[in-house]
Amino acid sequence: MTETVGKSSGNVFVDLGYSPDEAAILQMRADLMADLRKLIKAKRLTQAKAAELFGVSQTRVSDLIRGKWEKFSLEMLITLATRAGMHVTLKKAA
């Protein structure tokens, strides 16, 4: 069995066939979710404490930790990050 490996575009979502605009949003959502999970781990927050910090239910924190990205809009992730004291900015693509 032979597998062909291609060069990545730098955005896994583009590589999976999403349009560039949709891929950019998906990448931002994935990055924010990862940053929020890192924050929870770094601060050693329980799901209940993270829920309190974010102003959401413990179930929502569980979804976040389990990577259920389809349950979070970009706007919601920005809101959670802001509530946690993070500063969210967009950077211009190279």
For this structure, what is the CATH homologous superfamily?
lambda repressor-like DNA-binding domains
Determine Rg (CA atoms, Å): 16 Å
Give the tally of structural domains: 1
CATH third-level topology: 434 Repressor (Amino-terminal Domain)
Tell me how many strands there are: 0
Terminal Cα span: 37 Å
Architecture in CATH? Orthogonal Bundle
Protein structure class: mainly alpha
Provide the CATH top-level class: Mainly Alpha
Could you tell me the mean pLDDT? 89
Globally, the shape reads elongated
- In DSSP terms, counting alpha (H) and pi (I) runs of 4 or more, how many helices? 5
Question: Which range does the strand content fall in?
Answer: under 5%
Give a structural overview.
The protein is mainly α and 94 residues long. The protein has a single domain (18-83), classed as 434 Repressor (Amino-terminal Domain), CATH 1.10.260.40. It contains 5 helices and no strands. It has helices at residues 12-15, 20-42, 47-54, 58-65, 74-83. Helix 2 (20-42) packs parallel to helix 5 and helix 3 (47-54) crosses helix 4. The longest helix is centred in the first third of the chain and has 23 residues, at 20-42. It is elongated and about 50 Å long. The model has no long low-confidence stretch (mean pLDDT 89).
